[in-house]
Amino acid sequence: MRNKFDPAEIPPAPDLSFERSLWSNEIHYVAGIDEAGRGAWAGPVYAAAVVLPCDPTIETNLAGVRDSKQIPAQKRNQLALIIKKYALAYAVASADASEIDAMGILPANRLAMMRAVNALSLQPDHLLIDALFLPDQDQGQTALVKGDQRSLSIAAASILAKTERDAWMIEAHDRFPIYRFDLHKGYGTKIHQKGLIQAGVCELHRKSYKPISDMVNK
């Protein structure tokens, strides 16, 4: 189901309101799912799935977990370790640039999410997803607009997806240093644009994206 959204409903920090509602209906394994890298010009899109224990005290253990975009990199890395410690299960998966070009970013985004769900060590009964549905998954699903600001499970997934993708892009910098993927993680910054002017595109670039497609066509 798609959950109707009123911006006034965003809590000061993501909480367990949606998880508790499901737990109270004997749905014990709830996975929060989010992605990272959807708008980047280069590199894969990453997704994470996190199943938190059916225990309200997890909010205390995961204090500080927020939408990954609201947290500095060093703090994100620290929180990722805490999430992995307390989660019942978690998994991270990706879809690479060639898959994004072949099918489009939205299907590739869903593909990465499905890969993450299917890689979990226990299969969830319900999925809480940041603004998307996964039509090929059998579980019950709730698509939450601004889910990473409302659901603790989704916020935890956003942090794992972001930290894993950032680490991948930092490693990619060693192979393609001219683009400085370590700084911008594949997004369209001025530094990235300068590298593109100097060296053109590489195998990690999403050639279906503008302005990358314009450079390829030229």
How do the strands and helices of this protein lay out in sequence?
Layout: H1 17-23, E1 30-36, E2 45-51, H2 58-61, H3 73-86, E3 89-95, H4 97-103, H5 105-119, E4 126-130, E5 140-144, H6 147-150, H7 152-175, H8 181-184, H9 190-199, H10 212-217
Description:
The protein has 218 residues and is an alpha/beta fold. It has one domain: Ribonuclease H-like superfamily/Ribonuclease H (Nucleotidyltransferase, domain 5), CATH 3.30.420.10. 44% of the residues lie in helices and 14% in strands. It contains ten helices and five strands, in the order αββααβααββααααα. It has helices at residues 17-23, 58-61, 73-86, 97-103, 105-119, 147-150, 152-175, 181-184, 190-199, 212-217; strands at residues 30-36, 45-51, 89-95, 126-130, 140-144. It has a five-stranded mixed sheet. A hairpin with an 8-residue loop joins strand 1 and strand 2 (45-51). Helix 3 (73-86) packs across helix 7 (152-175) and helix 4 (97-103) crosses helix 5 (105-119). It is elongated, with a radius of gyration of 18 Å. The model has no long low-confidence stretch (mean pLDDT 93).
Number of domains: 1
Describe the sheet with the most strands: 5 strands, mixed
Shape assignment? elongated
Structure classification: alpha/beta
Residue fraction in strands? 5-15%
Low-confidence stretches: none
Order of helices and strands: HEEHHEHHEEHHHHH
The average pLDDT is 93
CATH architecture: 2-Layer Sandwich
Radius of gyration: 18 Å
Count of helical regions? 10
The third-level CATH topology is Nucleotidyltransferase, domain 5
Give the strand order of the largest sheet, numbering strands 1, 2, ... along the chain. Answer: 3-2-1-4-5
Text of the CATH class: Alpha Beta
